[in-house]
Design goal:
The protein is built from eight helices and nine strands. By secondary structure, it is an alpha+beta fold. The chain has two domains: 104 residues, no CATH class; 88 residues, TTHA1013/TTHA0281-like. The strands form two sheets. Strands 1-2-3-4-5 form a five-stranded antiparallel β-sheet. Strands 8-7-6-9 form a four-stranded mixed β-sheet. It starts with 21 loop residues before the first helix and ends with a helix.
Length: 210
């Protein structure tokens, strides 16, 4: 039986350009300008924090923006705008929503509880191995790269793993691939075949061009 091909329109990817901070601009469009400080504080906490990513969802014919924690698109924790000025976190394992009055309370809880899922990637090993590690070779991982002094630093989006630091961009990308393979408990030889997309911030772009 031949699987029907999707209509071309369903494959179109759209990138939004809303000016200087697409993140805050989109938050204002979806939730109102008075919520921007809420989203700013949350973004300051979670951006670059391993395993966290911001996404747009469409439920009940309405767009929503939320922060999620988990590997390759899984959602172990979700934070969305529900009880501003406080914060609500949905814990999927516990099937419960936890309220936090301040951003610092949320930070303290995450510092303790993120480690509960430190072995989540290794639990995916049997599935990844059964498909010859295709999830690592073909899906693609996004690397956010910056420069601090002489060190190049890469953070892997959507993966709760430590940052990769090296003396050059190519070395940093190689170490990031190795870190991804290690996180999935994959054979070392798989690292060289892992597909990555590199995103340079202003500091990294300037260093690359100098």
């Amino acid at each position: 039986m031949t699987t029907a091909q999707p209509d071309p329109f369903s494959l179109v990817n759209v990138e939004l350009n809303l000016g200087d901070s697409t993140y805050l601009s989109l938050a204002a469009i979806l939730y109102g300008a008075d919520t921007q400080q809420w989203w700013k504080d949350l973004g300051d906490l979670l951006y670059g924090r391993p395993g966290w990513y911001c996404e747009i969802t469409n439920t009940d014919n309405r767009m929503h923006m939320m922060w999620s924690f988990g590997a390759v698109g899984s959602s172990l924790f979700n934070i969305s705008l529900e009880n501003e000025p406080g914060y609500s976190l949905f814990d999927w394992d516990a099937d419960t929503t936890l309220p936090f009055t301040t951003i610092n309370q949320l930070r303290e809880w995450l510092d303790i509880n993120e480690d509960r899922h430190s072995d989540h990637l290794r639990k995916l090993r049997p599935l990844a191995e059964s498909f010859d590690w295709a999830i690592l070779k073909n899906v693609g991982f996004d690397l956010d790269v910056t420069v601090d002094g002489d060190a190049w630093i890469a953070t892997v989006r959507k993966l709760p793993i430590t940052m990769s630091t090296a003396k050059s961009l190519s070395e940093t990308v190689s170490q990031a691939r190795e870190a991804i393979a290690t996180a999935f408990d994959a054979p070392a030889k798989v690292a060289q075949d892992i597909l990555v997309r590199v995103h340079l911030d202003h500091a990294a772009a300037s260093a690359l061009g100098s």
